[in-house]
Amino acid sequence: MYIIIIGGGQVGYYLAKALLDEGHELLVLEKDAARTAFICNELGSVCIRGDGCEMATLEEAGAGRAEMFVAVTGDDEDNLVSCQAAKHKFNVPRTVARVNNPKNETIFKKMGIDVTISSTKIILESIEEEVPTHPITHLLDIQEQGLEIVEIKIPPHATTIGKTVKELPLPAGNTLSLVIRGQQKPFVPDEDTVLEAEDQIVAITTPETEEALETALRGS
Amino acid sequence: MGCGRVGGRLAGLLAIEEHDVTILDLNDYSFRRLPPKFGGTALVGNGTDEDTLKKAGIEKADAFIALTQGDNRNIMACQIAKHIFNVPRVLCRTYDPLRRELFGSLGIESFSPTTIFAQLVKEKLLEEKPEGEKKAN
Amino acid sequence: MEFNKILVPVTGTTADDEVIKLACQLAKKSKAKIWTVYVLTVKRTLPLDVEITPDVKKAEEVLDHITIVAEDEGYEVETDLLQAREAGPTIVDEAVEREADLILMGVVYKRIFGQFSLGSVVPYVLQNAPCEVILYHQYTP
Fold first, then answer.
1. Does A194 contact B at CB distance below 8 Å?
2. What's A185's DSSP letter?
3. Which of A81, A210, C92, C105 has the most CB within a 10 Å radius?
4. Which range of residues forms the domain containing residue A22?
């Protein structure tokens, strides 16, 4: 696959390295001359100096035949503009952007960027996972369908303990897909499964209904 | 957004005509360019940040104009204004003519000072001048 | 100076003939092997393995011509056509792979924007070559 990466910073460099190892053809566009030279030295002739927002540079880079376009500079505006150029001017089928300010994800989505990655959000999620008292952990976002997979812990004194799944007011479209209980083998719950304290429940939900799901599972 | 020479002047002009003007800039030092009796609001903050824009009252704005030095910043701010806050009129300065063309086709009303100014200078230069050489303003 | 494996990158300029003659003279003493390579650079707008017929034809003509020049010198050279994104690293890689002990290349005097310029390939090779490099600078008044 031919992949173009915009931004040869730490993220761009290690990404390029990993993708090269997987056997992809790729090109990094980097504004800084010294950084460009560094990447060419380390990885071979896979980096050219240029502004990934300039149409002429993108043309020269062969954006017209790229199958994926990844913008990972430290500036959201640059990532947004270059991805849109790739998408609308060069018809690159898949555009991926790094979003530095997590709040910007909305505008990226609205402007048709296929995948957005917010490192702040990812770190936040990892922290959530590490903090045992945090009630809800985001495991995975399925961006295209607007779904997310979360894990919810049932606290020791939750009002829902002892209730069956069918008694819980689960929001529409939510599915409980797995229960992890102590040392037992994780199992798929059915409507008669009874909740126990310290259960960890993996569920499929949406950003809009995750709060309702949390209340349904943990009581109030 | 952007209190440079153009931004500061425009804000001044609009304020004189009694429009309710808020000007944003990353640096409060830029506000020195505002006329001394500027009747609008000057706010320090990043125009590509939704919270700052809300603070500036974008939800009630009739128009949003991006005039910073960065084309991409201007485009992004305008797209936020248009697509997230539904501001009725959005204007964008884009130095790069090619970028202006692309984002124009994507629905952002923008103008390129590069194209306009080059054209203007060319016209000025080739204009038939009467002998008395009028002084330029 | 004695060499055993000489790599001669050619580009189809007027310097080629002199360079290959010089290579033959240097090679004769020690019966060295000569490889001439033509690096065909492919723009990023095209896949690397694309076949650009006119370019390939030109490259083959250059290499054929080189073979004849060498034969006139009484020497047999091996030729190779390489397709790559950039010439500099390709020449260096080739020298490493074939364990060349000399890279002999020609350069034609060039002015870009009014300034003397060696381009990007020659400086790259000089900086990264794994062996001796002889640069033939063709004088053009």
1. no
2. P
3. A81
4. 2-117
